[in-house]
Amino acid sequence: MATFVMLGKYSPEALRQISAERTEKFVKTIAELGGSVRAMFATLGEVDLVLIVDLPGIEQAAKASVVVSKDTGIHFSTHPAIAVKDFDQLVG
Fold it and tell me: Chunked in runs of 10, what are the mean pLDDT values of the chain (92 residues)?
């Protein structure tokens, strides 16, 4: 399982459609792709959402990013995340 950080930016339409049901649908979509949601944060500034998800691989992360963007109107930038201790071993 790999960890990904999904950074989201609301469109004006997506802002009008904020709901607990939409959040639940996101969690279900990640589960259907074989993953799980670790954490979800709403933030202030350039990024509106920070989502931490575990997925089997990059293909599922790409699909999640596109599917959720299409369903919600939220633009997502999805990034693989490596624990610093693991990164240190890889490059050190």
Answer: 96 93 95 97 96 97 95 94 94 86
Rounded to whole angstroms, how far apart are CA atoms 59 and 40? 21
Task: Check if CATH label 3.30.70.260 holds for domain 2-91.
Answer: yes
Q: What is the 3-state secondary structure (H, E, C) of 50-82?
A: EEEEEECCHHHHHHHHHHHHHHHCCEEEEEEEC
Q: Kindly report the pTM of this predicted structure.
A: 0.91
| Domain map (residue ranges) of the chain | 2-91
Q: What strands lie across the sheet with 36-42, from one edge to the other? A: 36-42, 49-55, 2-9, 75-81
